[in-house]
Amino acid sequence: MIRALALTASLGICPCHAQEEAREPLPDFATCMDMEAARYERALKRLREMPDAPEFEIGDERGTGYCGSVGIVLCDRLEVPEQVQDCQLALAAEQLALAAKVRDTLPDPEAVQTGGAFEQALYPQVYALAEGISAGPDCDGAEAAFQAWCTAWEANNRLSTAVLARQLARFMGLAEPATEAGWADSPPPVRPRARADES
């Protein structure tokens, strides 16, 4: 939950005061994940261009967590409590469905023969986390608003571990780009920002 609160704060928006803030345009969750997949591919390309063989230093769950936070903030902007809760539960379902797609593309650890000693030791552990079962119903017993929020974040945690395992498999050359695997689309082009009026 601390990670969830930190990521929400990183957007510069407090859910309880979202209606009072200038509403920065945000991508929907699916588009955000497309952007995250593309960001990883750029980072991987730069890493592979380095003269020395690098270790797996670009694996990161923060991008996936940010997309989950964006999704929750977009739900908060609906403002009507029932609509917010329905939106967050739908977001949770969307994240779990995506996590299942990502897990389906993960190679079996027993088939991993590439990569350095560090990556070969790390992959089975990350794979096990991605395939793991929740420790329990962490969100049960809470009032409806918090339960919906919690459910969305628990789904994001499941997705984050699956994406991290996929990042490592991609780094080791065991997986194709997300767009070729079918769980992400090419993100929309970034539009240049208009210059501030200096007159």
Describe this structure in words.
This protein is mostly helical and 199 residues long. The protein has one domain. The chain has seven helices and no strands. This is DUF1311 domain-containing protein. It comes from Ponticoccus litoralis.
Short key terms for the protein model shown above:
DUF1311 domain-containing protein, mainly alpha
**How helix-rich are the residues, as a percent range?**
55-70%
Largest sheet: none
Using only C-alpha atoms, the radius of gyration works out to 18 Å
- The proportion of strand residues reads under 5%
Protein structure class: mainly alpha
Order of helices and strands: HHHHHHH
Shape: globular
Q: Supply the number of helical segments.
A: 7
> Which spans of ≥5 residues are poorly predicted at pLDDT below 50?
12-20
Total E-strand runs: 0
Integer average pLDDT:
85
User: Span between N and C termini?
Assistant: 46 Å
Write down the domain tally.
1
Organism: Ponticoccus litoralis
Protein name: DUF1311 domain-containing protein
Give a nutshell description of this structure.
The chain has 199 residues and is an all-alpha fold. It has helices at residues 2-10, 29-48, 62-76, 81-104, 117-131, 144-171, 178-181. It is globular and about 55 Å long.
Compile the SSE list and pairings:
Layout: H1 2-10, H2 29-48, H3 62-76, H4 81-104, H5 117-131, H6 144-171, H7 178-181
Helix pairs in contact: 1-3, 2-3, 3-4, 3-6, 4-6, 5-6
